[in-house]
Amino acid sequence: MPKTMTLNVRVSGPLGDFVANNIGDNGAYENVSEYVRDLIRRDKERAEAEGFARLKVELNAAFAAPESVYEALDAETVIARN
To answer: Which of 14, 16, 35, 72 could form a disulfide bond with 29, CB atoms 3.0-4.6 angstroms apart?
Structure first.
């Protein structure tokens, strides 16, 4: 079961104004907690997308390599590497 975490963040000045404009009747969120959870979800999605993009680059490079660079390996060799 995921652990519940309580965060206490002090935001003032222009950042506080920005948050306040996004909360309540005129904002996109009902409360600060909802806003922060959405920001965290978006950041998690961004990090996952960056990881996937790096993997995609590596796979594209591997698939673009000529067959002459590949070397045949048996299962024992692969297991020994790990």
So the answer is: 35
